[in-house]
What does this fold into?
Amino acid sequence: MPLLTTEQKLERKIISRFRKAVYDYRLVEDGDKILVGLSGGKDSLCLLEFLARMQKISKPAFTLEALHVRMENIKYESDVSYLKDFCAERGVRLSLVTTGFDASTDNRKSPCFLCSWNRRKQMFTKAQELGCNKIALGHHMDDIIRTAMMNLFFQGSFSTMPVRLRMRKMPVTIIRPLCIVAESDLASFAAGRMYRKQNKLCPYESDSRRFDMAGLFSKVEAMNDEARYSVWKALEREGKLVEE
It folds into this structure.
């Protein structure tokens, strides 16, 4: 048997963790119709890639849709033709929506919050329009840990973005199948697959607390390379990863 290349080993590692998350947290089940939030970044492209592969397996039986939301007033430029081709090659239909917001109308919220909230609003609307019962987002393990750090340091609460979150006001569940995959592994996989990078021109990207938490957590990991698993176990033990 030929030895696996570094790229093949990485792919197997990511697929293994992706499947573990799907089955351990019951993220995908028979009969699901899932809307994938496709920003065009490496994480959402990887998410669509692995869900599309999983769809070809008979169990669980589910269907996929994808949605790309463009913000009129945030210069995050995506190559829509590339995203359309990416989805078409994997047998997934892509919907496009353009929206925007006025940060001056709500000084209590940051532009990052308003951008995220408006994108999410469009996803909920499209999910119900298409008859999807789940929305899949490309947040990885690092995203979930950084959110926990922000909530702890700035809000005084031990919580994070759940791996599975059932919405109370609508029949939709948010899932995060990349939740136990490290960002560095996704970045290496995307580079190896030569995913096209989008033009990220957001003026707020380096000013956010999330950006600060990324730097802080890298220092923590330099002191303890098992830190991410300690945080994850704490979140799991306290029941913060699943909200029904």
Summary: DSSP finds eight helices and nine strands in the chain. Helices lie at 6-24, 42-55, 80-89, 111-130, 141-155, 183-192, 209-223, 227-237. The CA atoms of residues 146 and 214 lie 7 Å apart. Strands lie at 33-37, 63-71, 76-77, 93-99, 134-136, 164-166, 173-175, 199-200, 242-243.
